[in-house]
Design brief:
Elements: E1 7-14, H1 26-39, E2 43-50, E3 53-59, H2 66-82, E4 93-102, H3 107-115, H4 117-120, H5 126-136
Antiparallel strand pairs: 1-3, 1-4, 2-3
Helix pairs in contact: 1-2
């Protein structure tokens, strides 16, 4: 028996930061994403976001590679969104994403961060937020590719 707790804070956005996730229907999308997380034997602790991006806090099942999980999550949800009349402005997800690991003791801190996205983005743009997350996690930003679709 192996013991793991692979806690990821994942951030991904719509292509060209298109405002495609309306607040009235976001819970429908979040429920769909929860289904994908569960199908992959993983645990969703929190989901939230804005019209142009989503944050997830998940415990990824140890049999999964993060890149494979994200490919499935974005591919499946993209097809679903394009066929759902409640999301008429959705085209695609951006190719890139951010994923940051955290200690389980930091779980509540990240949950609260995700919960407060609407308030947070009254004063901070997605670009600023994403830059800060990358810097806080020791990731160098290559401006040539940063937020390029």
């Amino acid at each position: 028996m192996s013991y793991t707790k692979l806690l990821y804070h994942i951030v991904f956005r719509t292509k060209r930061n298109r405002l495609a996730i309306n607040q009235e229907q976001e819970k429908e999308l979040y429920a769909y994403l929860l289904g994908i997380v569960r199908k992959n034997k993983s645990i969703l602790y929190r989901i939230g976001g804005m019209e142009d991006h989503i944050h997830l806090l998940i415990d990824l099942h140890p049999s999964l590679a993060l890149s494979d999980f994200m490919r499935e999550l974005k591919s499946s949800s993209s097809k679903w969104l394009k066929n759902n009349s409640n999301f008429p402005h959705f085209d695609y997800w951006a190719e890139s994403f951010g994923a940051f690991t955290y200690n389980y003791t930091e779980k509540d801190l990240i949950i609260n961060y995700i919960k407060n996205q609407k308030e947070h983005h009254k004063t901070v743009s997605f670009e600023e937020e994403f830059r800060n997350l990358l810097k806080e996690n020791g990731i160098d930003i290559d401006e040539q590719y940063f937020l390029k679709d």
